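User: Can you predict the 3D structure for this chain?
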Amino acid sequence: MTLTDTVALIKDRIRDVPDFPRPGIMFKDITPLMKDQALFRLAIEQIIDRFRNDQIDYVVGIESRGFIMGAPIAYGLQTGFVPVRKPGKLPYDTLRQEYQLEYGSDALEIHNDAIEAGRRVLIVDDLLATGGTVLATTDLVRKLGAEVVAAAFLVELSFLGGRERVTARDLDIFPLVTF
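Assistant: Here is the predicted structure, written as structure tokens:
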């Protein structure tokens, strides 16, 4: 199956949920895709294949669907997995970074000893919207002295301008599908 065929199947399994989490937001729900074992596996394998030769040391997954995507990608790349979470969710000393998203603001945290300086990191999340969460995560990883090789997403919502914001900050991205 070609990447084009895979992308078409993936797009078909992502449903729109209007007015979630707030009025005016069209939420892209990936749970139907995750329910389809063969297609979910294919999506994960496409991302693994893209980064297989990039000498990734850690996959950093952004709460919460980035955990769902990131853990199997880390397994496939034979790397460690590092979670980035909302404030107060990690049990050890953390670094914190605030960010804006399409419907408000929030913050993310990472353990201050999660990644050693000089390591190569792939950031993973389910969706690139405005770029706020991935930029905050990039800032956290860079504060630890690590190199962010790229960020991978299942979905990019191009109309929200995240690509422009993220690439303007010297971050390469790989979205599997774009709406």
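The first strand starts at residue 15 and ends at 18. The chain has a mean pLDDT of 95.
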